[in-house]
Amino acid sequence: MKYEELAEAYEILENSSKRLKKTWIISNLLKKTSDKDLEKVIILLQGKVFPSHDKREIGVASKLVLKAIATATGYSAKQIEDLWKKKGDLGLVTEHLMKSKKQNTLFNEELTVKDVFETLQKLSTLEGQGSVDQKVKLISKLLSIAEPLEARYVIRTTLQDLRVGVAEGTLRDAIAWAYLDEANPNYDDSSDSINPKDREKYVEIMLKVQEALDKSNDFGVVAQASRKGLNELAKIKLVVGNPLKVMLAQKVNSVEDAFKTVGKPAALEFKYDGFRMQVHKNENDVVIYTRRLEEVTKQFPEVKNYILKNVKAERCILDCEAAGYDSKTGSYTPFQHISQRIKRKYDIEKIAKDLPIELNVFDILVYNDKILLNTKFSERRKILEQIIKQEPKKIVLSKLLLTDDDKKAKAFFEESIKQGNEGLMFKNLDGIYKPGSRVGFMIKLKSAMDDLDVVIVGAEWGEGKRSGWFTSFTVACQSEDGFLELGKVGTGLKEKSEEGASFEELTNLLKPFIIEEKGREVRVKPEIVVSLQFEEIQKSPSYSSGYALRFPRFVGIREDRSSEDIVSKEEVEELFYNQRKK
Ligand code: ATP
User: Fold this and answer.
1) Is 417 near ligand 1, meaning CB less than 6 Å away?
2) What is the pLDDT averaged over residues 7-21?
3) Ligand 1 mean position to 399 CA, how many Å?
4) CATH topology for 250-446?
5) How many CB atoms lie within 10 A of CB 518?
6) For residues 177 and 205, what is the distance between their CA atoms, to the nearest angstrom?
7) Which atom of ligand 1 is nearest to the CA of 273?
């Protein structure tokens, strides 16, 4: 496929905020895509060049891209930078310069999807001496073949900042519209509405596509199968070793409301304050994923040992919370203490000793040859009890109370808090496991005002002795219209890294994601998630969400979370109204 066709679709997507229209545009593009290009187009539509479960990154900074643009257009780095400051987007800058470029097009070629995809993938493999020049060469070669519009998207994809807004749900629907006749929506462009012949059937098909996605976590695989038909789609199975999205909980504010939602009796469990681990065991192989499905097996060698020694199953997928504890006193420590283990690449054994974790297993999704997603919670728990040999401070089952009694539930909640946990989880005994969904059969009840998980979208360089660090950070919540600002925060970070999350650490984490720099202020890609505490939420015209946090302070950096996991604007609104009720 010519890259031009993709670029033209990107442009329409970028200029439309209508979800149905976007779905229509993508589905038409997919219909035209050959089998050979399908996976590439699907991945490129998501602004990436690797599928979600592949954690390789293009890893090219804007400075290098600038050089490539200079090489391809003949403009100086200074001229490009000046224009960048004005337009705020290197993609648009490149497009603009390409229209009046000083260099002639060297090749009389047409850019293909394959060229772009494979070249950008190649960038991630180049390392060491001479690699900068090689990368500049590869990018500028793409640009020298590209038309101006194509150049806009080549640059944005290279910088991992596509800005065309294709949500996962849109891509899913587009795949169904494109390939599954029964899901023909009869889209009407003039009224931007759909009118499927058989609505029930339509919904059923969407659910089937979603189910296949939940199991494979791979849009490419689902698209290929859908193209062959429903039978092929039904063959997509959950594979031990491949990560799948975790099931999430809804939130309530009282024991009464929790029971109302999950029914009585229910299974109540301690809500541990650690981070989620999805553990896959296939005979002697163990693979561990975080909640954002990043593989962390190497960082947790002790977990692998616990699984091999204490879990009696040839194959299984376990859902767990890894909770940290103090190696001297044995008491549980907050998440922030163990979070550094997630990214750690050296001294693994030492840090495992200093910051030990206990694996609290609370669910099982596959047991030998049985897939348990549609098995009742009570049955799944029974299997866990049969196959896990508990060893305190190593591997245990989450502490559980089966009850229908409000009073007993409240006492259990107090007990959990006293032991340093966050509160309780309430589970419907008949509930199934729905990957990737926030469901009403798993409910959380927490103690005080929650920490708020937000993403950093901007920062400001400090002054004086802090001039090498960012010292103020603009944070945002998520919404259907993208990320919306909630305010600025600078307190709570430490001067030295040994004391906890520090200015230096956060600065280093953010640097690769800078997409625009103006004076002391930078805009960054929404990648780094942090937990904040705050006094109160106020209405505010100063920030795009319409709300501001009063006295926000950092609690920690959430290495285990992605920007999809942060608080939504609706949740902020709800917090705002609830605080006023109190
Ligand atoms: P939070 O910030 O409240 O932990 P979250 O957005 O990470 O929420 P939710 O699904 O909303 O995720 O809340 C449940 C989380 O609590 C799980 O993701 C898991 O990490 C953690 N957890 C701790 N103990 C349990 C348990 N016994 N059962 C299920 N989840 C548990």
Assistant:
1) no
2) 94
3) 14
4) D-amino Acid Aminotransferase; Chain A, domain 1 (3.30.470)
5) 11
6) 10
7) 23
For ligand 1, the distance from its centroid to the CA atom of residue 333, given in whole angstroms, is 16
How many C-beta atoms lie closer than 10 Å to residue 88's C-beta?
A: 13
What's domain 452-581's architecture? Beta Barrel (2.40)
- What are the residue numbers of the active site? 271
Measured in Å, residue 50 CA sits from the centre of ligand 1 at: 28
What's this model's pTM, rounded to 2 decimal places? 0.77
Domain 250-446 matches domain 452-581 at the CATH topology level: no
Q: Which residue's CA is minimally distant from atom 31 of ligand 1?
A: 271
Lookup: tokens for 33: 């895509």
Structure tokens given for 143? 């640009």
User: Of 435, 430, 425, nearest to 378 (Cα)?
Assistant: 430
Q: Would you kindly state where each structural domain of the chain is located, as residue ranges?
A: 250-446, 452-581
Phi, psi of 64, deg, nearest 5: -70, -40
Q: Is 294 helix (H, G, I), strand (E, B) or coil?
A: coil
Q: What residue type is assigned to position 437 of the chain?
A: S
Mutate to test the pocket of ligand 1, among 251, 358, 425 (most ligand atoms within 8 A of CB): 425
pLDDT for residue 304: 96
Q: How many residues does the chain have?
A: 582
Each residue of 128-183: pLDDT tens digit? 889 999 999 999 999 999 999 999 999 999 998 898 988 889 999 999 999 999 99
Whose C-alpha lies nearest to ligand 1, atom 13? Answer: 249
Tell me which of 1-10, 58-67, 283-292, 539-548 is least confident. 58-67
Ligand 1 within 6 A of CB of 451 = no
What are 548-554's contacts with CB under 8 Å, separation 24+? Answer: 548/486, 548/487, 549/452, 549/475, 549/486, 549/487, 549/489, 551/491, 552/475, 552/487, 552/489, 552/491, 553/489, 553/491, 553/492, 554/489, 554/491, 554/492, 554/493, 554/501, 554/530
Cβ of 362 closer than 6 Å to ligand 1, yes or no, is: yes
Locate tokens 């009796």: which residue? 265
Alpha-carbon distance of 561 to 452, in angstroms, equals 12
Ligand 1 center to 361 CA (angstroms)? 12
Rounded Cα distance, 431 and 113, in Å: 44
CA 272 to chain centre: 21
